[in-house]
Amino acid sequence: MAEYNLNMKIQQALDYGLQYAKKSGADHCEAYGLNQKAYNLEIEKDKPKHNIGIQHGIAFRVIANKAQGFAYTSSFENKDIEMTVKMAIQCAKTMKEDPDLKPFPKPKKNKNKLDLDEEFFKLESDQAAESFEEMLQDELPKDLYFLMAMGFIGIGDSFLKTSQGIDIHDRDAGYGLGVGFLSTHGFPNYDFHFEGSRTWGQIKPNQVSKTAIEKTLKSAKPQTMSLAGEYPVIITPEGSYGLFGGLFMILEQLLRGDKASRGETVYADKIGEQIAPDNFTLIDDPLHPDMITSAVYDAEGTPTERTKLIENGILKTYYLDSYYAGKLNMESNGKSQRGGFMGGNPVKAPPSIGGYAAIIEPGDSSLNEMLAETKEGFMMKSFMGIHMSDFSSGRFAVTGSGWYVKDGEIKYPVQDISVSSTIPDLLMNIDLISKERTKGLNNEVPYLRVKELSVAAKKLDFKIRFGFKVLKTLIRLGIVKNPFI
Amino acid sequence: MLSTRLHLNIFIITLWFIKLIKMSQDIVDKALKKLHDLHIPYGDIRAENSLMTQIRTVNGKVEASTTGIESGIGIRILNDGAWGFAYGPLERYEDVIDMALKANKLNLKQKKRDISLAEVKPVEDSFIGEQKRKLDDTGFDEKIKFTFETDKAQEDDRIKSRTSSFREVLRKMILATTEGTRIVYEVPYVMLFAVSVAREGTETIEGRCRIGHLGGVELLDIRSPQQVGEKSKERALEGLKSPKVKSGRYPVVLDGTINHLFSHEAAGHSAEGDFVQTAGVLRGKLGKRVGASCVNLIDDGSLKETEGINSFGYIKYDDEGVPGKKNYIMKDGILKTYLTDRSSAKHFDLKPTGNSRAEAYTVPQIVRMTNTYISPANDSMKHEELIEQTKNGFLLMQGGGGQVDPIKGTFNFGVAELYEIKNGEIGERYRPTTLAGNTLETLLKIVGVSPEMGDPLDSIGFCGKDGQSAPVGITAGWLAVKNIVVG
To answer: Which CATH architecture group holds B2-241?
Structure first.
């Protein structure tokens, strides 16, 4: 009941803000409101750090004097709403007229629907934690230790009302569970597994745990190597769209309509051109039934759609909102977003362009065939330093970990492998795409083999390796305590 | 006329802000009373009101102009040896306490050991970050002008896109604990960013420049918007005509900004007490040699300014009320302490180092760095001597962000300027790239540190950890390293 009353209060605040904007000289106004609750679950080794929070606020984007302004507040009092709207108008009035600026989008019919699991809204904190506990295994293989477990449950109502007549109440919920283990077999290494769903109970905590253990064992005892040269590299689904960012995060930046309209990306003016092999198709699918980022409307109230960005290697379109679609003489494909899921408070920033769920169509090779085709190379699963890449040219030089592949077989896990190239070169060099795909939190992608990538690595110094071996011996003999656990 | 109107509105916003602060004080008192009434052994309350303004200009046109006020309260309790943290709107502080109790119940169920806190003396104080040119005395139109000036300075036929962003944040917070600590903070930050994208033929390259400090708009009197725009343009244009470096392992000299990046990312994160309790390459190494004898790694929250320029990572108190301090993490290559909050200090039997920070009321405090760098040793060498000693390799300048894996001990940093060192002299410039290495190995391979402290404006950053971001600095002397992977 309290939540219902708050939702009513938010809607009244938005209506008041819209009216006040009109009265105060705004030509158009878009009002957004949020009422959100989150359970953040985390255990770091032996420290449980669960927390719970509620967040609500409202934001106004106005068009006045042919310019846009934006302001937000966490208060619903009329005086504060007035002040916020005034600030947004003031922001707009300080800007020069923008000839490209058009009114906010008009309402459009939307037949798309996503299932909502109301169970999330009835959850008590105890229940939320129960599913979490099931991930915590008591018995683990030798040299494997629990590192951390994390989870989240997000429920919320958001509201969008505009002077153009859009009136949307979006009620959404989802959750995620993940766990990581540390292997001290050889140099310490770890791996995680994380799953998300829009249906409560869909994730099997035991299975998440088992998968994480398997992944950690596969990465155990990593080696370092000294080499520099061009090698074939298989990029795993996590390597291209990992939980903490993959290489294709750079591609998403290069395909943004705002960057294309400003000539800021290497793919500006390249629509219709071949930018990847014939069998490479990249789709953004906000309507995927079980991605926690799925949505039927974008942040401007435009119905979302399944968009083929690259089809059979040809660049078809960019990620577009209404403004940049207009600048590029194209139609919005509903890619306007507000930060939120893993991106901060959605109230605090105006909508911007981004992808919802990346889907890469499967290819016709099996992973085994891809490995068999690799005489000497690497299979890479995670990269560091992606955010330091050049988001205009797509140039990257990242350090990662994965496996060394020799004569068609995975030989051993490796770390400290530096890989460099540009995204355009990488895409054009993909020669094999796997049939197998893995579903992540907001993606479903296959393994991709790149024919040649520049790889450099350096073996850890003898002194450090020797010191480590001595330490392991002392631990085994019980002379010193294992410092890694 | 416009300017007068704008000033008037800024005045109204200021009044609104004052109203919120007053309300926060009342709520903090009520929340504290409730925690006492519930006999909670320890609780801390952070009430926050933040004013944020951001203006982004793209190719000479203001593309985004946003402002807003956010208020809320974060309450953390320590009950029966387990934490409970919750957050929410100020006026719903009672719900927030209930949620903190629920979170505490969940944590109690899964705790394996008791959490306790190192003793500290309760503090009653206030801190107002000095602003020589106040944010609220500077009109919106003037702030827009900063971005236009930055934009103008980037103009060139080869620059295809110019982005300039001005950002200011004014955080007003109250920290109150059941032990009697009560600190009122007012912390202003000002930042200016430029990104220039150069294109020639099929080649595209980005140049970036970012400055910032804890203080007011006087930042732009110290370093002008034109200088920021020009530097960004120069990096893009120089990068465009420079050759690519061949990936490989090279002897290197790292400038002060990369000294900071390495000290922060590679060495500092590995020494964070909350993290070390779980894993990491510095676990179990207190009192042991982990670096070359010239390595003195410092984190200094009390470093207010360097040569008149305010540090981005300065804190008078951390978010548990512990004063910011100068801490030697490593002295002469020996690991002396971890960086701690009160619970990790107790766990390791160390003194609290004043490194407990939270990005906002919506997140709990965690161990964070402040101003981190490797300071000159007794046998410091001048810049020229470091270059001469390196003979053949690369001089890497102007760090552009970094990432570390503190469990594996690996790191990767962006480098905006790269120069060849040939026969002990600085030579040809190369295209921006990255460097990568292993923390423990690199610490042992540092062969020299220069005594000159760099310009703190060159090395501001936001450190990300556990989804939280914290302002950090600072640039220091140059470092020579035997070898590292470049490119």
So the answer is: 2-Layer Sandwich (3.30)
